[in-house]
Amino acid sequence: MSSKFFYFALFLAMISTSHQASEFVTQSCEKTLFKDLCTTALESSSATDLEGLTKDALNVLSTNGTELVKLSSELQETASDPNVKEVLVECSKAYEGVTEKLKDSAAALDSKAYGDLTKWVTAAMTGSQKCSEAFKAKPDITSPLADANTEYSKLCNIVFAFFNLLAKS
Questions:
Q1: Pairing with 50, which of 43, 58, 84, 125 sits 20 to 30 Å away (CA)?
Q2: Which domains occur in the chain, in start order?
Q3: Nearest to residue 90, comparing CAs of 56, 121, 130, 53?
Q4: Which pairs from 134-137 meet CB under 8 Å and 24+ separation?
Q5: Which helix (H) or strand (E) holds 4?
Q6: Which residues are in the Pectinesterase inhibitor domain (predicted)?
Q7: How deeply is 6 buried, as exposed, middle or buried, from its count of CB atoms within 10 A (0-12, 13-18, 19+)?
Q8: Are 57 and 42 in contact (CB under 8 A)?
Q9: How many Å apart are CA 5 and CA 84, to the nearest integer?
């Protein structure tokens, strides 16, 4: 009988923690410019503090960057227009270097290396802007990365919002 009570209590504690994490994500995302994207991107986060949520946001950003590199490479292979290929190569280069740095972001956050983190996320945002500008410089072509690139830029903005909140706490 007591083991049933233990498992029931454990179950209730897990539900409570999950609800607290979900509520924390929602409340934290309300403090960003892109609330809906933030909530959607971090809905599976179990973080109950800002540092944990920032780690999760950095992980989402890193994963998103990795996917952008893959997508850019795939599009390079299938693109028939040499101008599109040229810009996709530029975009791929812009994302590759910073994506590698972002993979180290959790350790940097643990050691409170905020300067490094800020540099890396700034570089990520700059890479996103360079990719957009490279396509805009060629008015005859449409960016096949436009939506993904915009989302990546917004994710950078969300991470910056969390950095600012961490700095205030």
A1: 125
A2: 1-167 (1.20.140.40)
A3: 130
A4: 134/87, 134/90, 134/91, 135/87
A5: helix 2-29
A6: 20-162
A7: exposed
A8: yes
A9: 63
Q: What is the pTM of this model?
A: 0.84
Look-up: residue for tokens 């960016």? Answer: 143
CA angle 148, 151, 153 (to 5 degrees): 110
Q: How many whole angstroms separate alpha carbon 18 and alpha carbon 23? A: 9
Instruction: For residues 51 and 84, give the distance between their C-alpha atoms in angstroms, rounded to a whole number.
Output: 40
**For residues 124 and 61, is the Cβ–Cβ distance under 8 A?**
yes
Cα 139 → chain centroid: 29
CA–CA dist 90, 69 (Å, integer): 11
Q: pLDDT (tens digit, 9 = 90+) per residue, 3-62?
A: 554 444 434 344 444 445 589 999 999 999 999 999 999 999 999 999 999 999 999 999
